[in-house]
Each structure stands twice: as C-alpha cells, then as structure tokens.
Amino acid sequence: MQTLLDTLAGIVGPAHVLSQGDLSAWEQDWRQRGHGKAFAVVRPASTLEVAGVVKACAAFCAAHPESGLSIVPQGGNTGLVVGSTPDDSGRQIVLSLQRMGAVRQIDAANLTVTVEAGCVLQTLQQSVLDAGYLFPLSLAAEGSCTIGGNLGSNAGGTQVLRFGNARELCLGLEVVTAQGEVWHGLSGLRKDNTGYDLRDLFIGAEGTLGVITAATLKLYPLPAAQLTAWAAVPSMQAAVDLLGLAHRHLGAGLTGFEVMGQFALSLVGSHFKQLRVPLFQDWPFCVLLENADHESEAHARAQFEGLLEAAMEQGCVSDAVIAESLGQAQTLWQVRESIPLAQAAEGLNIKHDISLPVSAIPAFVKATDALLARAVPGVRLVNFGHLGDGNLHYNVQAPLGLDAAAFLRDFEPEVNRLVFDSVVAFSGSISAEHGVGSLKVDHLTHYKSPVALAMMRSIKQALDPHNLMNPGRVVKV
Ligand SMILES: Cc1cc2nc3c(=O)[nH]c(=O)nc-3n(C[C@H](O)[C@H](O)[C@H](O)COP(=O)(O)OP(=O)(O)OC[C@H]3O[C@@H](n4cnc5c(N)ncnc54)[C@H](O)[C@@H]3O)c2cc1C
Fold it and tell me: Structure pTM?
C-alpha cells in the first residue's frame, strides 16, 4: 500500500496525502453516527489530479484485488446519513474536494455559473450576488457544505418550493468516472434530448458512480423585495390549508414555507438563549413563509397582508407577524435553521427525513404520533420541515431522563420500522433530501421495489464494475 501512497503523493503533492496524525475531521460524520478509519485523505487541486488519483486507485485494485481499497468522495462532510466518511476497515481513501473551490465563469446572458465541486455553497451564493444574481439553493449547512456534496446528495433546503432541488438547478456536470476518465458534460443547455441523461445519473448518486468535479448551474434575477412572515397555526391541517391559500395569493412569489412543531422551537429557546423565538407557544405549530416579489416591497407587503387576513378569517392562522426589517427576517430564519443544531445539542436522536403528498401529511402525523406514543411512552417528537415540498423532518428524541445512547440502542429499529411503515402506507418516501448513505441502505433494500433496486444495481455495475466508488452506500451490490 505504501507504493500507492507514493504514487498519489506524486499526483497531488506529498502535503496533500494525509495518512498519519489526527484525521478525525474527515473520519467523523456531522451527527457523530459513524467514526471510521481512513487509509489516507487525498486532496487534489484540479480535475486532472482527481482523474490521476482515481486512475491510480483503479489500477492498484486491479493489481491487488485482495486489498479491498475504495474511494469515498467528500465535500464539506455535513451529510446526515453517514455517506461521506470512511468505514472502519482502514482501506478507504477519503477524496476531499475542498481544494477545488473556484467559481470558473458567470455567463450573464445564459443565466448560468460554472463552479468547481469544492466551492462552499455560501461562497457561491455571495459570488453571484456580487454580480447581481441569485443562486437559490439554501440550507442551514450552507457555510460548510459544497456544491459537489449538494449535487452528490441532491440537496433540497428552503427554496425547493419555487426553484426545485439541486438536480433542478443543474444544467451540466464535469465528472471523473470510476475508471479515472473525465466526462466533459459542462453544458449550459436547457434543452438537450440526445439520449440517456448522464447528468441525472450522477446527481443524487452520493459518490457511488463517480466524482463530480464541476457543475454549470442556473442563476436567477434578484427579486425587488423579499418579505418573511411567521404565523401560528392551530393544527397541521391548518398549516396545509394555509399553504393552499399562500399558493393562490402569492403565486410564484411564494419561495419558502416551513413548518415547526412547538417542541422543536422550545429546543431552540433552551439551547440558543440569545435567539428570540416568537412567542406563540399556545399553538402546536408555527409556519415561516417567504414572499419574493419582483415589483416592490409595498406590493409584497400588501400581498402578504391580504393572505394573512384571508387565513385568519378562514381560521387557519391564529396569530402572525410580518418581519419589519431584513434583520428581523434573518432572525426568524435563524430560529428555523437552528432547529437541527438545537436538536443535536439536546442529544443523539433518530432522524427521519421523509416526504409525503402534502394532502396526506395531517393524517400521517396524527396516526404516527399516536403509534409512537404507544410504543415509547414519553417520547419527544421534533417535527419540522419544508411543508411546501411535502418534506418533514420527523425526528424522535428520547423521553426526558432516558439516556440517549440507550434509547437508540433499545428503540431505534422499532421506531424506524414504525415510522417508515407508516410513510409507505401514506404513499411517501423514506428519504426526501438527505439521501441514503450507510444509515438507510438496509431500509432502502426493504422498502424500495425489487424492480427499482435491480435497475439501480445494473447502473452501479455498469459504471463502477469493481465497486471502487463509495461501496456499501445507497445500494449494495
Ligand atoms: C445543520 C444542517 C442542516 C442541513 N439542512 C439540509 C437541508 O435543509 N436540506 C438538505 O438537503 N440537506 C441538509 N443538510 C445535509 C447536508 O448539508 C447536505 O446534504 C449537503 O448537500 C452535503 O454537502 P457536503 O459538501 O457537506 O457533502 P458531504 O457530506 O461531504 O457528502 C455528501 C454525499 O455526497 C458525496 N459527495 C461529496 N462530494 C462529492 C463529489 N464531488 N462528487 C460526488 N459525490 C460527492 C459524498 O460521498 C456523500 O455521499 C443539512 C446538514 C446540516 C449539518
């Protein structure tokens, strides 16, 4: 194996092949659900270097099949399903794209930007903002996650309702295949029906088919005004009714619609005391709405007021505020985005990132809350998410006083089965936006149709016949 390290050092430079010392930043996942042991962390600085690394690893595996060597692509390592960290075999190379962060080109007339995979999402948002454009992908990890990871996991976030998820924002890709070849697919075309869509194969593949090295992404004009409102609603059904009204009143201006259960908000209140959580504790859920308007702030406000008035008359909103300033709006979003952090601070928990038809959500929540309460007396539900997309983060926290690790050990399989069975019964998906990783790979085998799984395995075997790329994630072959 030392010869391989020397070869890799020759490609990326000895300073960028790390095999000694503390590698925990690359070996430990964000949720602390998996701590692996890397053979090495390799940090290329260009597409050619990525291709060289993959080619060298493929050749090494062909010569030493018993080595069990494989590659785990990694961006910001903020993924939530243990997909970007190595297993504990000590035979995996973490291929970190963090040195490839350049924004290559903004094409103003085509409304596109071409960017390298290691670019941090927030850096890209700011670069295009400085040029007068909007790149709408937005999520709480945007200060650390990268474009390669966003595309690898087909990230969603808070603007999917209007702009779609990472897949819908991507027009073209540059990819290093599992054989170490470069596929130059950086097209800025909105129409291209020339056969199978290779781009879509790599998006959401979680690094199991190849390494994304760059992408051409869609840009949008900046809105004239963006307003945020916070509303208390008497039930999940009322939140769904409010969503319907918001679609009718705001049309394409409706860019965000987030629901937050009261317990989720109370965790933010107790773990982030400096944040002012709006005081609507008498109501079971609050909703955060965003209206982006291309006319003016006055127009946006009038639309919002009309919506909230109609919603109160109809009884689906109990109380509401519209942010008076950008600062107030940012605070409201900060409260929403602090929920995952507050939940992590409260202790290990069982996450379910699920999607359902919006119309089925109230009945799903009622039925599944009751099932969980019966199965685990005192269980605490952290229920929040992107209701506008039918996406709930339906997370389960240990009953008060019960050790979190013991709770996971004793209850995780039963809680997962109960929640996922219910999701399937309501025609939903067991992973909405976080992906499969290692955490959900067995659940996928159980819940996905055999026909779909067989097609997925055929694709994996065709593109990565030696199982070099992120093995054991997404689909087992
Ligand atoms: C606080 C918090 C909030 C979050 N909120 C959201 C949310 O609202 N919506 C959402 O969708 N996700 C969310 N996430 C999950 C996570 O941030 C996203 O999935 C993000 O897109 C991952 O990007 P990353 O660069 O950190 O990728 P990583 O975690 O490094 O990798 C994720 C997956 O992509 C693969 N990968 C990474 N880079 C490449 C590449 N260049 N080529 C091929 N495959 C690659 C990895 O192998 C892995 O399987 C959140 C995470 C945190 C911590």
Answer: 0.95
